[in-house]
């Protein structure tokens, strides 16, 4: 890592660290992006320490990763990653920059930082008033080693020995599972044959060995039954009597020159 001190970004903010990270994540936009954290990811990969340092390009996400690992502190030490907020905030969401602590001198820290003074990879001496916190790769490694030690002491699952109660199961007479499967198949075939022998409204006995006739009398088919139904008496229809004839009315013709009497209705205003 120290061999890279003095590296300067190319035109368009292109760096070999950004190119490496872009190839790593299959995203070309990182070739010309801010490269302070991508340089740390590149250096950790060269030292085979990526699992303890992390590989990030976005500094707030990198700080959150250390917090999740339980490796976040406010006390600097050599080898720690220092995260800055140039506005003086103390929340990881406002982090702008990251570097590597090389040495601690009282209230000052000596760092190696990339993308500093806009284009350089160089050493810097910083005050701690802009520091948000420190990520400690040493604590990440200790947690991983402890977890690996716990997993190495875990014993594989061993089933408990089977206790024989002395009482056998009724299925033990069938022997092994293949024998049990064979018995189930035979039972299914027998039941299917019994079902196919049924017809609608009748039951036909199949010619099984145990149903075969034993004598000639049993072998002779029984005569068919003839059912004779009594014939219902025929219905006779009787003609209905004709209704009596009505007597005809005789009309008497009026005499010539006469009119039939008519009723005269008195008007209400005429005297009686």
Automatic annotation (TrEMBL):
The chain crosses the membrane at residues 179-196. Residues 208-272 are annotated as: Disordered. Keywords: Membrane, Transmembrane, Transmembrane helix. SUPFAM superfamilies: Cysteine proteinases. InterPro entries: CHAP_dom, Papain-like_cys_pep_sf. Residues 30-115 form the Peptidase C51 domain. This is Peptidase C51 domain-containing protein.
